[in-house]
Amino acid sequence: MPPLMKPFRFGRELPPGVLSFVMNIPTLITLSLVLAYPIFYAAYLSFHKVSLAELRRGVFPFVGLANYERIFNDPLFLLSLKNTLLFTGLSVTVEILLAIAIALLIDQTHIWTSRVTKFLILVPYAVPPIANGLIWSFMYSFEYGFLNRILFTTGISHSAVNWSGDPSTALIAVAIPYIWRTLPFAILLLHAALQGISHELYEAASVDGAGAVQRFWHITLPLLRPIIVVILVLRTSFAFAVFDEVLAITQGGPGDATWVASWYSYKKGFAPPFDIGVGAASAYVLAMIVGLLAIAYVRLIYRRIN
Amino acid sequence: MRQRGWTNLWLHAANVAVIAFFVLPLIAALFGALQSEKSLHADTRGLWAPEWTLDNFRVILSGGAQRGAIFEQATYLPDNIKKIHFALINSTIISVSVTLLTLVFASLTAYTVARLRSRWVMWLMGVNVFARFVPIIVLMVPLYVTFRGMGLLNSIWGVIIALTGFLLPYGIIILAPYFASIPAELDDAARIDGCSRFTVLVRIILPLSTPALASYGAIVFVIAWNDLLIPLILNNRAEFMTLPVMIASLVGDMFTFFNLLMAICLIALAPTVILVLVLRRYVVQGLSAGAVKG
């Protein structure tokens, strides 16, 4: 867009450059305090010893890479990274597959139940993650949980299932509520993209004798690909930071089966022994991984715009 | 036609499955919240409770003052439950202030992005696209140290500032393209009539942007209301907790039973769920426009 030709000069108005600075002052102050400064300060802290004693004295001794050495020699940190990767891979894959299916389903506007589904889609989005986690924790409960009651009542099984207490399935038990809560976002984006596909394409394919499955593979899926990639990158980077559901359902347990990256940073920095330096270092590793994804995303978006 | 009938049947079945998956947790929560701990333990296999009660809600909303039948004999009630009104008030104040502040700040910035287009403003926009990827935990470690030095721990303000900063980039990403889509001729006409740029924003751009403002406002309110990590790390005194922090504080409490927890969860999720259902159209638009955080 070419710059506006100003029809008049307003003597009392600030020139555009100055005006845009003045109008951005609140944003600049907030963003530098909450985003820019902390990013650099986190890097600073990760190279220093910061725990309760240092916080009280206000002096943080420089320790070089010691914090990073400690986390990379800590089997628990490596396990947390591994769990985070597993969790992310699992939840994002399942989520995208489900979201494509449900987006196609709610696109069938002639089916009245599809309209009901479409109305309810947003509900999980609004539920506080911690409440979501706790509700699922109640459903999973071994002694009197809702899921076991369903099993008993329907007669599927007569022995109680320990849904979240088994180390081999605990990560899945955390992933299901997470998928439940974040699915609406993926469905909405896919549904919006579906509506952008012209009906003539489908009609032309039908005339050529393509069945529903062929139309999906050769028209729908290729046209959805850009938005699928966007969802993939966004959801992956957010799933890397999963925290609330872990706190509510397993608190890292059973054993250390569900320690994830955010949980590690939180436990190291804000629980005894309050080693904030180590917390900062581990959080920074997470930020680096997500940062790479962010770069991929920005590139992608700009390629789409150009 | 017969073929079509079968297809429709399958589609209905798929919808029923999806709807069941979406509402199952809410039904479970309601089921837990409407009975006593005793009845949860009495029958651990059936779905239908032997008796239903509203006492869980009564005890929570009265801050432990009205115990009702099921808590009459309870000798222990978590302290935080008695302070639940703080959490309700704090969550409301924080979410409303963050929504208003981000709307104002983001509108000002979005206007400069859409209309003034200085190079550094465009650069700021790029930073915003990037900023929403930063995991909150990364910001919370340094923010804790900084806010500690500024005396902003255990205060409403610390949380408001942090959330505002964290949610501002989304707003700029949603609002800037919307402002840019409003014909610049309208600005020109107003300016010929003697409006300053600021007046143009307030009198012309903002009234024409109500859908985008509603979208963004609703999304910000939901995220601010639901956020756990920021207030969890900044505020640990019951007087300054938000609802999610209060819920989290009860997680480790062995003596708090699910009936009470489910009632608190329902109280915490009701405002945002209702808001989102009422403003459904705007939330959908906002989410797809900004491809924001889910």
How does CATH name the architecture of the domain at 82-276 in chain A? Orthogonal Bundle
Shape of chain B: globular
Question: Would you identify the regions of chain A where 5 or more consecutive residues have pLDDT less than 50?
Answer: none
Helix-strand pattern of chain A: HHHHHHHHHHHHHH
Structural class by helix and strand composition of chain A: mainly alpha
Short description:
Chain A is mostly helical and 306 residues long. Chain A has a domain at 82-276: MetI-like (MetI-like fold, Orthogonal Bundle), CATH 1.10.3720. Chain A is built from 14 helices and no strands.
Which helices and strands appear, and what pairs or packs with what?
The complex is a heterodimer of chains A (306) and B (294).
Chain A: H1 16-46, H2 52-57, H3 66-72, H4 75-106, H5 112-120, H6 123-126, H7 129-140, H8 146-154, H9 170-195, H10 199-207, H11 212-239, H12 244-249, H13 261-270, H14 276-305
Chain B: H1 2-33, H2 37-42, H3 55-61, H4 79-82, H5 84-116, H6 119-131, H7 136-150, H8 156-181, H9 184-192, H10 197-208, H11 210-226, H12 229-234, H13 243-251, H14 258-278, H15 280-290
Helix pairs in contact in B: 1-14, 5-8, 5-11, 5-13, 6-8, 8-11, 9-10, 11-14, 11-15, 13-14
